[in-house]
C-alpha cells in the first residue's frame, strides 16, 4: 500500500483552547489510485492534506508513505521525503513570477540534489512538453493564461517523478472551461498510472476520481467508489 494512516489525530493549541482538527483518521491508498478527499471548510480535509503531503506531522497516530513511517520524521528528513515522493498542485499556482517556465519547473530538482544544470533543464523541458507547454518555455507566469499557469504547476509537480500527485483545489482559480481542461489532464495522468489525490469541496471535481473519502468534523464520514 502506498499510503497508510493509523488513527491519525491533529490537535492545535490556541491559547488555552484545544482544536481537534483530525480525530483518529485511518485509511489507505494503493499505488495508481485516483482518490478525492472531500469536505467543507473546517472539516479537516486541509489538515489531512498537509499531513499526507508531509507539510505537517500528526499529533498522535502513524503515517506510512511508500514503506516509510513519515510520522516520525522532522526537519530535513521530512523535507527530503516531501521533495522526492510528492508533487504538489495548488489552487494559486505558486509560480515564481520573475523567471521563465523552465526555471520554475526545474526548481524542485535543485533541492532534489545530484542533478546538474543541463539535466535539470532537460527534465523541465520534457515535463513542460508533457503538459502541452513546449512552445512556452521562455515565457514568464504573467505572460500565461490561468490554465497555462496550472499546466506549468502540474509540470513542476511531475518533474521529480514523484509517487503521488497531490492537487489542492486544482480548478479553484479557473473558469469552468479551463477547469475542465485541467481535470482532463489529471484524468490522463491517472490513466497512465500516476497516483492522484484531489483535495476539494467541489463535487464536480471529485466526480473525476475513482474513489471518494469524505471528511466531517475531523473524521472519515463515508467512502465511496465510482
Summarize the structure.
By secondary structure, this protein is of the alpha/beta class. It has helices at 45-52, 75-85, 101-112, 117-130, 146-158, 176-191, 203-206; strands at residues 3-14, 17-29, 34-38, 60-65, 68-69, 86-89, 164-168, 195-200, 211-216, 219-225. The chain has a six-stranded mixed β-sheet, sandwiched between helices. The chain has a four-stranded antiparallel β-sheet with strand order 2-1-4-5, with helices on one face.
How would you sum up this structure, described in words?
This protein is α/β, with parallel strands linked by helices and 226 residues long. It has one domain: Rossmann fold (3-Layer(aba) Sandwich), CATH 3.40.50. It is 35% helix and 29% strand. It has 7 helices and 10 strands. A 6-stranded mixed sheet has the order 6-7-8-3-9-10, sandwiched between helices. A hairpin with a 2-residue loop joins strand 4 and strand 5. Helix 4 packs across helix 5. The chain is globular and about 50 Å long. The chain starts with a strand and ends with a strand.
Amino acid at each position: 500500500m502506498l499510503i497508510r494512516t493509523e488513527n491519525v489525530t491533529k490537535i492545535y493549541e490556541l491559547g488555552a483552547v484545544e482544536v481537534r482538527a483530525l480525530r483518529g483518521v485511518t485509511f489507505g491508498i494503493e499505488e495508481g489510485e485516483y482518490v478525492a478527499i472531500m469536505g467543507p471548510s473546517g472539516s479537516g480535509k486541509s489538515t489531512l492534506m498537509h499531513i499526507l503531503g508531509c507539510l505537517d506531522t500528526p499529533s498522535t497516530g502513524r503515517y506510512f508513505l511508500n514503506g516509510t513511517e513519515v510520522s516520525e520524521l522532522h526537519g530535513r528528513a521530512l523535507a527530503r521525503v516531501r521533495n522526492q515522493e510528492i508533487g504538489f498542485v495548488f489552487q494559486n499556482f505558486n509560480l515564481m513570477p520573475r523567471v521563465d517556465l523552465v526555471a520554475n519547473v526545474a526548481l524542485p530538482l535543485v533541492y532534489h540534489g545530484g542533478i546538474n544544470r543541463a539535466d535539470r533543464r532537460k527534465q523541465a523541458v520534457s515535463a513542460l512538453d508533457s503538459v502541452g507547454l513546449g512552445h512556452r518555455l521562455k515565457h514568464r507566469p504573467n505572460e500565461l493564461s490561468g490554465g497555462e499557469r496550472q499546466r506549468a504547476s502540474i509540470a513542476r509537480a511531475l518533474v521529480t517523478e514523484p509517487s503521488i500527485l497531490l492537487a489542492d483545489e486544482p480548478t479553484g482559480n479557473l473558469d469552468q472551461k479551463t477547469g475542465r481542461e485541467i481535470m482532463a489532464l489529471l484524468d490522463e495522468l491517472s490513466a497512465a498510472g500516476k497516483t492522484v489525490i484531489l483535495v476539494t469541496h467541489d463535487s464536480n471535481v471529485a466526480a473525476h476520481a475513482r474513489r471518494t473519502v469524505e471528511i466531517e468534523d475531523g473524521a472519515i464520514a463515508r467512502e465511496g467508489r465510482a
